[in-house]
């Protein structure tokens, strides 16, 4: 759980350090601009930017029932972030599994990626797709009710 927050916490601490240094040097405008930028970066790279993560077992169960793809991701991954934001509201219709929170998910991702934890790995009908195009993923979603 803590691993997912290391990058965001580091970004906030760096932002505080840079903003404090700028303020001490007599550049309050730079400090005011930099701190929110670092906080925004931290928020984007945190688990908060993604729909609620579920376990790999629960995702497989739900996917078998509703046919929705499963996305294996981790916080701090720029490709996961790109997929999340390019999907927009459609991202909430996928089953998201954080591989840093679920060891079984990390094992599943390594099994289909030659031992690497390459994310995002999207499972559609039991077939893995590594870092797929967001438009393609959107096309794999079942129609909205």
From TrEMBL:
The keyword Membrane applies. Residues 71-127 form the Glutaredoxin domain. The chain crosses the membrane at residues 29-50. InterPro entries: Glutaredoxin, Thioredoxin-like_sf. It comes from the Bacteria. SUPFAM superfamilies: Thioredoxin-like. Keywords: Membrane, Transmembrane, Transmembrane helix. Pfam families: Glutaredoxin. This is Glutaredoxin domain-containing protein. The lineage of its organism: Bacteria, Bacillati, Actinomycetota, Actinomycetes, Kitasatosporales.
């Amino acid at each position: 759980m803590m691993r997912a927050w290391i990058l965001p916490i580091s970004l906030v601490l760096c932002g505080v350090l840079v903003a404090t240094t700028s303020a001490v040097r007599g550049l309050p405008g730079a400090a005011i601009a930099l701190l929110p930028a670092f906080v925004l970066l931290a928020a984007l790279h945190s688990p908060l930017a993604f729909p609620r993560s579920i376990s790999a077992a629960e995702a497989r169960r739900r996917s078998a029932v509703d046919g929705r793809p499963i996305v294996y991701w981790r916080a701090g991954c720029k490709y996961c972030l790109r997929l999340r934001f390019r999907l927009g509201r459609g991202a909430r219709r996928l089953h998201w599994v954080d591989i840093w929170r679920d060891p079984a998910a990390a094992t599943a991702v390594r099994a289909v990626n030659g031992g690497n934890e390459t994310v995002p790995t999207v499972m559609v009908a039991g077939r893995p797709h590594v870092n797929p195009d967001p438009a393609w993923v959107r096309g794999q979603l079942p129609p909205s009710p």
